[in-house]
Write a structure and sequence with these properties.
six-stranded mixed sheet, 338 residues, Rossmann fold, alpha/beta
Length: 338
């Protein structure tokens, strides 16, 4: 039952030792149901005793499939979201590969994905403005789903309505009596902050209100988001801007805004009300707990994974776009202005 010293056991070695064919061993390895229980058990014992491991490289060259889904993130750092993005394709039996890149090396990243024979791509690129034709050409025919809100794309994507989210936040403040609403948002080069900014302007203008001050900063990491929130409030106050409420790009930026207001002797919500976005777990533990627009990213990740797997398994798959609708979670960071 031994192999030559230093040589890894092959599937032929397992077949010979088990007294079965190459095909039977292959069916056991791939959990094919049409193998007798006694035969399956005998082959599995030999595999374990010999220390046989599948040659995935050879399998990829034969089948042109890797059983790998690549998650590509462009121009943003995803932090703790990575395992949450990957868990759904992992549950379907795929391995996940995570890549970060900038717009400048996006095409090269897709070339590398093609060279690795990945079976599909989940793309999170919140500032990527690209035509469907160009994206399809760059992706080398690999099934791809965007985990973004990209209204002008006819490819498959899943994203939250940023216009509806902004209406929830701004209208809640207006309903509470606020007339001077400031905005702390992300770089307007990003798709979502641009949509939120335009919607904020549209809502306050339609209600006959004058827009409050606006600050666009970097929210591509948690630390940068907190810094953006802090710097925005400090700038508003240093300029002597008038406002009674702020919408903030996410809960981490809201943390920075809360700290800056505290530094300047202002209380939330007594002096300034805040509504943020995301409903990160931290939102309910801040002082005060944040009123925030809830994006359930687990649902978004699950749907993106589901649509990608459907695309991989169905050659006639028809692209579709799925718009998710968020909810407003009311806590204690908003009250009528004094």
């Amino acid at each position: 039952m031994s192999t030559k010293k230093g040589r890894r056991p092959t599937i032929q070695d397992v077949a010979r030792e088990s007294g079965v064919s190459y095909g039977t061993v292959s069916r056991v390895i791939n959990s094919h149901p049409e193998v007798a229980a006694e035969t399956r058990a005998r082959v599995q014992r030999v595999i374990k005793k010999m220390g046989y491991q599948r040659n995935l490289g050879a399998q990829m060259l034969t089948t042109h499939q890797s059983n790998i889904i690549e998650i590509i993130v462009v121009d943003v750092h995803f932090g703790i979201e990575l395992p949450r993005m990957g868990q759904f394709v992992n549950e379907a039996g795929y391995s996940t590969l995570y890549s970060e890149c900038t717009l400048a090396d996006f095409a090269l990243t897709l070339d590398k994905a093609a060279a690795r024979l990945v079976d599909g791509i989940i793309l999170y690129a919140p500032k990527l403005k690209i035509s469907d034709a160009d994206l399809l050409a760059m992706s080398h025919g690999i099934p791809i789903v965007r985990r973004d809100y990209v209204l002008d794309s006819k490819l498959t994507w899943v994203g939250y309505s940023q216009q509806h989210a902004t209406r929830l936040a701004v209208q809640h403040l207006i309903d509470q009596g606020h007339q001077r609403i400031a905005e702390i948002t992300g770089s307007l080069e990003f798709i979502n902050p641009r949509l939120r900014h335009d919607t904020w302007l549209s809502i306050v203008s339609s209600q006959g209100l004058e827009p409050g001050p606006s600050y666009a900063g970097d929210y591509s990491t948690f630390s940068k988001a907190m810094k953006t929130g802090h710097e925005a409030v400090c700038e508003f106050l240093e300029r002597g801007e008038a406002f009674t409420a702020i919408t903030v790009v996410n809960d981490h930026a809201a943390m920075g805004a809360l700290f800056a207001l505290h530094e300047h002797g202002l209380r939330v919500p007594d002096d300034v009300s805040i509504v943020s976005f995301d409903d990160d777990p931290i939102a309910s533990y801040l002082i005060p707990p944040l009123t925030t627009v809830r994006f359930d990213f687990d649902i978004q990740n699950k749907l993106a994974s589901q649509f990608l797997l459907e695309q991989i398994n169905d050659p006639s798959y028809r692209h579709h776009q799925h718009v998710l609708i968020p909810d407003l979670i009311v806590r204690k960071s908003v009250q009528p202005p004094r």
